[in-house]
Write a structure and sequence with these properties.
This protein is of the alpha/beta class and about 200 residues long. Helices cover about 50% and strands about 20% of the residues. The longest helix has 23 residues, at about 70-90.
């Protein structure tokens, strides 16, 4: 069994509102300045594309309200498509950075975003967990009017989800001996968090 792809795979996770997409944006800019080849994809966008084609939903936040077996199907198809896409874009070098969630709160309970069948496709070199103080994350969620995040249960709900998500990331890392990097994204310090993440990536 092949343990790695030719390019390096870095999965970046974090609960909604932790700022991982902002960190990834800074990461891409810094990597470009250093001449590093980085391709960023959003796992949820790949799932949404398939769902839209089937006429199921049109809103990303509705994915987690779908029946679990449908989510599972979309998840499996997305993982395969992401690796095919990265192969075309990166060839045998560079970094594939995947913006996703290690754990998803669904209508049927908590659901792993990185189960074995997904990890078997992605074969990550690293799983990076972006974290921030729960009260900061809850505040960001409250201010974000572009996404529906009112059902995460305030500060305590965020704290609990962050604990579960960190545990889920370590559990997923076991399958392919992936490293796990915990990156703290404090208020106004997303660029610093990105530099720390890139430093870990360069040592893979």
């Amino acid at each position: 069994m092949r343990m790695r792809h030719p390019f390096k795979v870095v999965i970046v996770t974090g609960v909604p509102g932790v700022g991982k997409t902002t960190v990834i944006s800074h990461l891409k800019e810094i990597a470009a300045e250093k001449g590093l080849k980085v391709e960023v994809v959003n796992f949820g966008s790949f799932m949404l594309n398939y769902a839209v084609k089937e006429g199921i939903i049109e809103d990303r936040d509705k994915i987690r309200t779908l029946p679990l077996r449908k989510q599972l199907d979309l998840q499996a198809r997305a993982a395969k498509a992401i690796i095919e896409y990265a192969g075309e874009k990166l060839g045998s070098e560079g970094f594939l950075v995947i913006d996703t969630h290690a754990l998803v709160r669904t209508v049927a309970g908590y659901w792993p975003g990185l189960p074995k069948h997904v990890i078997d496709q992605l074969k990550p070199d690293m799983i990076a967990v972006i974290e921030a103080p729960p009260e900061v994350v809850a505040g960001r969620q409250a201010r974000d009017k572009t996404r529906y995040r009112a059902d995460f249960g305030g500060v305590e709900g965020v704290r609990r989800l962050m604990e579960y998500a960190r545990a889920a990331s370590f559990a997923s890392a076991v399958f392919y001996a992936s490293t796990v990097a915990i990156i703290e994204n404090l208020e106004g310090q997303a660029e610093e968090a990105a530099r720390q993440l890139l430093s870990y990536m360069e040592n893979l």
